[in-house]
Write a structure and sequence with these properties.
Length: 239
C-alpha cells in the first residue's frame, strides 16, 4: 500500500507564534482520515502547514515517499495535492463558472471545460447555478463549489477543513457522502471536522489533537465507541 502522507515531528505556526508541537500522522492511499479536536488546538494550522500556508519550522513531511517539508503551495498542487480552506473558500463576486475556472487557470480551455463538466457532474446542484454569483449560493452550495474548484486540478490527495461547518444536517450529510464518493475516483481524503461523528462514521481512522499535538489515534469505529473519547471530544449526546 502506498503511504500518501507521512508526517513525523512536525512543528510550525505563524512567524514566532508556535502552534504545532511535533505532529505525527500518516495516511495511506485511498484512506479517509478525520482529525478532530477542540477549537484553537491547531487543526487548521496543521493542514495549512502541510499545504505551505502556515509556517513550517521542523520535522519531516513526506508525500508519496518524497520529502515535501516546507515546500511551496504551487509545487504541492503540481504534485496532486488540493486544499479546501475553512473560510473564504469561494470568490463571492464571481459566478459559479468563473470560480471553477479559477481552479485551473493554467489549463487549456479545452481541458478546463472538460474538468468543469466533470465537477458539475459530481455536484449537479451547481449546474443550474452556473451563471449565478457565488454570493447568491447557500452555505451548502458554497461548500460544494469550494470542493468542486479544488477538484479542477485533478488532485489525488484532498485536504478539507471543516466542510460541513454551519450547515444544516441535511447538507452536512450530503457533503460528507459526496466526499466519501471521491474515494471511488482514487482520491485520498484528510478532513478536519467539527461534526466529528458524521465524518468519523465514513472514515477509516481518526486523530485527536489537543494543544498542537496528537493526543490519540485509532480506528474510526474505536474512536466513535470509546466512552471516554465520546465524553471529551464528541459531545455526550447520541445522534
Ligand atoms: N494567522 C495567524 N496568526 C497567528 N495566530 C494564528 C493565526 N491563525 C490562527 N492562529 C492561532 O493559532 C491557534 C490555532 O488555530 P487553528 O485555526 O489552527 O485552530 P483550529 O483547531 O483549526 O480551531 P477551530 O476548530 O476553531 O477551527 C489559535 O490560537 C489561533 O488563534
Ligand atoms: Mg480550524
Amino acid at each position: 500500500m502506498t503511504r500518501v502522507l507521512d508526517v513525523n515531528g512536525l512543528t510550525g505556526g505563524y512567524g514566532s507564534v508556535q502552534i504545532l508541537y511535533g505532529i505525527d500522522l500518516h495516511i495511506d492511499e485511498g484512506e479517509f482520515v478525520t482529525i478532530i479536536g477542540p477549537n484553537g488546538c491547531g487543526k487548521s494550522t496543521f493542514i495549512k502547514a502541510i499545504f505551505g500556508i502556515a509556517d513550517y519550522y521542523s520535522g519531516q513531511v513526506n508525500y508519496r515517499g518524497k520529502s515535501v517539508s516546507g515546500m511551496r503551495t504551487d509545487q504541492l498542487v503540481n504534485m496532486g495535492i488540493a486544499y479546501v480552506p475553512q473560510v473564504n473558500n469561494v470568490f463571492p463576486s464571481l459566478s459559479v463558472e468563473e470560480n471553477l475556472q479559477m481552479g485551473g487557470n493554467s489549463l487549456s480551455a479545452n481541458i478546463l471545460g472538460q474538468r468543469i463538466e466533470r465537477a458539475l457532474d459530481m455536484f449537479p446542484d451547481l449546474r443550474s447555478r452556473e451563471h449565478d454569483l457565488a454570493a447568491s449560493l447557500s452555505g451548502g452550495e458554497r461548500q460544494m463549489l469550494a470542493i468542486s474548484r479544488a477538484l479542477i486540478s485533478e488532485p489525488n490527495f484532498l485536504l478539507l477543513d471543516e466542510p460541513t461547518a454551519a450547515l444544516s444536517p441535511l447538507y452536512q450529510q450530503q457533503i460528507i457522502e459526496r466526499i466519501d464518493a471521491l474515494r471511488e475516483q482514487g482520491i485520498t481524503v484528510l478532513i478536519v471536522e467539527q461534526n466529528a461523528r458524521l465524518s468519523l462514521s465514513r472514515s477509516d481512522r481518526g486523530y485527536i489533537m489537543s494543544n498542537g499535538k496528537v493526543v490519540h489515534t485509532g480506528d474510526a469505529d474505536h474512536i466513535l465507541t470509546d466512552p471516554e473519547i465520546g465524553q471529551y471530544f464528541l459531545g455526550t449526546h447520541d445522534d
